[in-house]
Amino acid sequence: MPQYYKRKTEIGHPTEGRIVAALDAIASGLTLLKAADDFGISKSALQRYQAKQAKQKNDASALSKIPLAPHYQHAQIFSAIQEQE
């Protein structure tokens, strides 16, 4: 493996724009499975983001604060400084 690994594909890493578009499509009546297939997002990830959105639906200002990116810090071994070394 090279010293600086670069991903070859972006499969499995949906962008924030695709997630928002898929959530909007679900809100307009598209099924979860169809939206997941159309936007290239896994069903379970889209369901998780939809649950976050439904939980904070009462607070309109909180909707913009929902993190729509993968969160890998729970499995992080090295700090950001150690990764840069």
UniProtKB/TrEMBL annotation:
GO molecular function, one term: DNA binding
Residue ranges constituting the HTH psq-type domain according to the UniProt record: 15-49
Entry superkingdom: Eukaryota
Record Pfam families: HTH_psq
Name this protein carries in UniProt: HTH psq-type domain-containing protein
